[in-house]
Prior knowledge:
Elements: H1 2-25, H2 29-34, H3 41-52, H4 55-68, H5 71-98, H6 103-111, H7 117-147, H8 151-199, H9 202-209, H10 223-233, H11 241-249, H12 253-270, H13 272-281, H14 294-302, H15 305-343, H16 349-371, H17 377-401, H18 407-423, H19 433-451
Helix pairs in contact: 1-8, 1-15, 3-8, 3-11, 3-12, 3-15, 4-5, 4-13, 5-10, 5-11, 5-12, 6-7, 7-8, 7-15, 7-16, 7-17, 8-13, 8-15, 8-16, 11-12, 14-15, 15-16, 17-18, 17-19, 18-19
Amino acid sequence: xxxxxxxxxxxxxxxxxxxxxxxxxxxxxxxxxxxxxxxxxxxxxxxxxxxxxxxxxxxxxxxxxxxxxxxxxxxxxxxxxxxxxxxxxxxxxxxxxxxxxxxxxxxxxxxxxxxxxxxxxxxxxxxxxxxxxxxxxxxxxxxxxxxxxxxxxxxxxxxxxxxxxxxxxxxxxxxxxxxxxxxxxxxxxxxxxxxxxxxxxxxxxxxxxxxxxxxxxxxxxxxxxxxxxxxxxxxxxxxxxxxxxxxxxxxxxxxxxxxxxxxxxxxxxxxxxxxxxxxxxxxxxxxxxxxxxxxxxxxxxxxxxxxxxxxxxxxxxxxxxxxxxxxxxxxxxxxxxxxxxxxxxxxxxxxxxxxxxxxxxxxxxxxxxxxxxxxxxxxxxxxxxxxxxxxxxxxxxxxxxxxxxxxxxxxxxxxxxxxxxxxxxxxxxxxxxxxxxxxxxxxxxxxxxxxxxxxxxxxxxxxxxxxxxxxx
Length: 472
C-alpha cells in the first residue's frame, strides 16, 4: 500500500501543480475553454490519446474482451476510431475554419436564435454527465483495489481532485497534462498486455486454448449483430464534442488535421490491447467475475506492487484526463449555449470565465450523483453514444453539405428522434433501436426541410465550403 500511496501523491501533486500554474496564466474565457485556438501538434496528439483512453478503454473494454472476445474490438473500438478519422480527415479543416467553441455553436451560427440549445443540452446532459460518472466509477475502483476504500469514498475523493484540477487549470492544463500522460498510458497498456499474455504461455498457447468464439472478429450472434452494434456506437464519433474541441483548439487547420489523424491512428492500435488482455484473462480469472473488475484484478494479481502502481497511475491518468475533458465539454455547453444565449448575451469575458468555472463544478457534481446509479460501464457508455449519434449526426451532415436544410427540419429531426429513443423500449418492435432512430432522424430532417422555408436569421450556405460567421 505504501507504494500506491507514494505514486498517487506524486501524480496528483504534479497534476494540481500544473493546474495551479495555469490558474495565474488564464485571463480570458477563450484561454480557459479553448486554449485560445493556439495549441500545437504534439499537445493535440497527446490529448486525443489520453481523452480516448478513459474508463471505457482500461475497464470497460478489458471487461468486454473478457465477456465477448475480440469481436468487441471490431464492433466498438475499431469502428469508433474509423468514424473519428472520417471526422478529422473530411471535416477538421472546415470546422477549424469556423473558429467556434462547441458543436452547438455551429447550429446557432447556421440557423440563428437559440437553435443550438437542444444539441447543447444533449451534449451536456446525455453524454457528458454519464461519461464523467464512468470516470469516477473507474477512479473508485482503483482506490478500492489499492487502498481498500469503499466505492462512495473513492468517488467523492475523485470528485474533489477533478474539481480542483479542472476549475484551476481549464483546457490548457488538461491539454498539457494529456500530452505527458499519453506516454504513461501507452507504457501501462503495453506492460500489462505483455504480462498477461506471457502469464498464459504466450500468443500460441492463448490462441490454442481459446475457443474461436472469443477470437473471431464477428460476434457469436453473427454479422448482423456486429454491424448493428457498430451502428449504435460509431456514428456518434462524428459529433463527439471532445474531438471538436481539439480541432477548434489547434493553432491552425493543418495542425488540426495532422494531429487528429496521428492521435486517432495511435489510439486505434493501442485500443486492441485491452481486448487482448480481457481474452487472455479468461484463462485464469473466475468467469463469473463482474466484467468491470477484471482489469483491476489482473493488474493487482500479476504485477509486483511497484509495477502495478505504474499501471494504476496510468489508469488514473486516463480517468482524470477523461473526466476533465468531459466536465469542460459540458461546462462549455452550459456557459456558451445556455447562459450567454438565454440570460446574458453581452456578458463580459470575466463573467464568462467565472460562469465557466461554476459550470465545471455543476457538471462534476452531477457526474458524481449519476455515478451512484450506473451498474455497467459498457452499457451506459453505449447508450449515451447511441442517443447522441441518432439525434445529431444527420443534422450535422446537413449543415455541412445541404443548403436547403431548414431550422424547422433540424429541430423536428432532433426532437422527434429523442422522443422515439425514449419510448422505443416500450414499443416491442423487432428492429434495432439505433437503426430505426437514424432512419426517423433522416426522414424527418429531409421531409420537414423540403416543406418549410428558411428562417430570416438562417445562413443558407454549406459550412463545409464557407465560414458562416462571414455571412452574418
